[in-house]
């Protein structure tokens, strides 16, 4: 089923979030892309844009070479879901992450995530990413 124009806009927004904020761990663009009353559900960052900025600044200071590789991204209504490979330190296997964003008035209004460390061996030959 094709995406609606609103869903296409939401996908573009979340791609910009990864390219301009999460990927480079850059807090400078947060106010452009996130709602002022942004709600954070991840236990790693305080809620609100100030909490996100503080987390990004901390992460950039502690792991400047971290990378986010978006493997797939989906939209449904006002939600966008991304499956992402996050590597905090080069050379590590990293984590398989699912980010869920709710969009309101063209900005990220809410975020949830789940993360799983990629183990060295699995009980199957299927890739987590």
**What is the rounded Rg?**
15 Å
Which shape, going by the Cα principal axes?
globular
Number of strands: 5
Q: Largest sheet, described in full?
A: 5 strands, mixed
CATH architectural grouping = Roll
What fold name stands as the CATH topology?
Answer: Nuclear Transport Factor 2, Chain: A
Structural class by secondary-structure content: alpha+beta
User: Assembly state here?
Assistant: single chain
Q: Which stretches are low in confidence, meaning pLDDT under 50 for 5 or more residues running?
A: none
CATH class: Alpha Beta
Your description of this structure?
This protein has a 5-stranded mixed beta sheet. A hairpin with a 2-residue loop joins strand 4 and strand 5 (107-117). Helices cover 29% and strands 36% of the residues. The protein has one domain (5-117): Nuclear Transport Factor 2, Chain: A. By secondary structure, it is an alpha+beta fold. The protein is built from 3 helices and 5 strands, in the order H-H-E-H-E-E-E-E.
């Amino acid at each position: 089923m094709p995406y609606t124009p609103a869903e296409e806009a939401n996908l573009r927004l979340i791609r910009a979030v990864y390219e301009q904020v999460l990927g480079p761990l850059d807090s400078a663009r947060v106010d452009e892309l996130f709602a002022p009353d942004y709600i954070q559900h991840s236990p790693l960052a305080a809620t609100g844009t100030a909490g996100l900025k503080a987390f990004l600044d901390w992460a950039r200071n502690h792991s400047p070479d971290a990378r986010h590789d978006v493997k797939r991204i989906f939209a449904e209504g006002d939600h966008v879901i991304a499956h992402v490979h996050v590597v905090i330190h080069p050379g590590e296997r990293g984590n398989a992450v699912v980010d869920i964003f709710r969009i309101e008035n063209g900005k990220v209004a809410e975020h949830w995530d789940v993360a799983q460390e990629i183990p060295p061996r699995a009980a199957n030959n299927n890739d987590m990413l």
